[in-house]
Specification:
Length: 279
């Protein structure tokens, strides 16, 4: 279908984007367009104005920020996948970016768009929740930082207000921690039926820190706290995986029932934890 008519504005800076968002009602930001354009074409979204962020090249970067890496919101999935800083210090992000869609999607879609869209089937949001990432937001009152765990509020709902622009994502350097993102999909290059992100730190067989977050197991990324608590030693993987779906509220849809997803999450969590602990 053809989108409903809209006005088109080009943002020359983040401040300009905030200003343009404030000027008119029912305005939407456009980044890679790989979530928004399909919605426009189906007329599920009918914004009066599109504000294009595409010329803000200053928001495409991965930078060393001490114990963290800072990622500009307009950095494309393909650039995340091949970035040497991410590959060295936070390979969970580059690995997961390489699992998103197909090459065309990865060459246009951005991390900021993926996060701001708030789709529970997207891969990077649960990874950012498992990493305890921070999201930097610019709005009419200036800049604020939102923990990833507080950012996702519901299906397609986030902490972003109508005049907010997501500008940066900060992820920790993982050092020797084990990590994994395991995704099950019905067809190659598809969205996750379920995904599991893990970060595990251990010493002498004891687990010092475990973070587990689930994709498409609820309206937002689900932090599996019960499973994290059950993982005290390397021998607890099966028991932890068995409780991974405890806090979830998975949907039933054409990709699988809620019950199927709970089972799948258990299987994938076991694989993900084994990978993280083995790695
Ligand atoms: P856009 O479509 O431009 O924007 C999406 C939303 O975010 C809009 O509401 C927009 O207003 C808002 N927005 C964008 N940037 C900002 C910003 N900086 N600040 C505030 N709001 C902003 N994703 C996966 O995770 N896994 C997959 O397997 C996968 N498969 C896909 C397959 C296909 C065929 C397609 C078309 C998409 C797929 N995607 C998948 C989605 C893809 O990752 C998108 O690129 C991503 O979800 C949105 O990023 P974008 O830059 O295209 O955002």
């Amino acid at each position: 279908m053809i989108p409903a008519p809209f006005d088109y504005e080009v943002a020359e800076s983040v401040e300009h984007a905030v200003e343009l968002l404030g000027d008119r009602e029912d305005t939407k930001l456009l980044a890679g367009g790989h979530s928004l354009i399909p919605l426009l074409r189906l007329r599920f979204a009918r914004p009066a104005v599109l504000v294009d962020l595409g010329r803000l090249d200053g928001l495409r970067y991965v930078r060393d920020a001490g114990d963290r890496l800072a990622i500009g919101a307009l950095t494309r999935h393909n650039d995340l996948q091949h970035d040497s800083l991410l590959q060295e210090h936070c390979p969970l992000v580059s690995h997961t970016a390489g699992l998103i869609g197909d090459p065309q999607v990865r060459h246009r879609g951005t991390i900021g768009g993926s996060v701001a869209h708030g789709d529970p089937a997207s891969d990077l949001p649960s990874v950012l929740v498992a990493l305890d990432a921070e999201l930097v937001v610019h709005g009419p009152d200036g800049e604020r930082t939102v923990p990833a765990g507080d950012f996702f509020r519901g299906v397609f709902e986030t902490a972003l207000g109508p005049q907010d622009v997501l500008t940066e994502i900060r992820v920790p350097k993982l050092g020797p921690a084990g990590w994994s993102y395991v995704k099950f999909m019905r067809r190659a290059q598809d969205w996750a039926t379920v995904g599991v992100a893990t970060v595990v730190r251990r010493s002498n067989g004891t687990i010092d820190h475990a973070a587990i977050a689930l994709t498409n197991m609820g309206p937002t990324p689900v932090r599996a706290r019960a499973a994290e608590g059950a993982l005290k030693t390397e021998d607890d993987v099966a028991a932890a995986a068995a409780s991974v779906a405890a806090e979830s509220d998975p949907p039933s849809d054409t990709s699988g029932s809620a019950e199927y997803r709970r089972h799948l999450a258990t299987v994938l969590a076991r694989r993900a934890l084994e990978e993280a602990i083995g790695g």
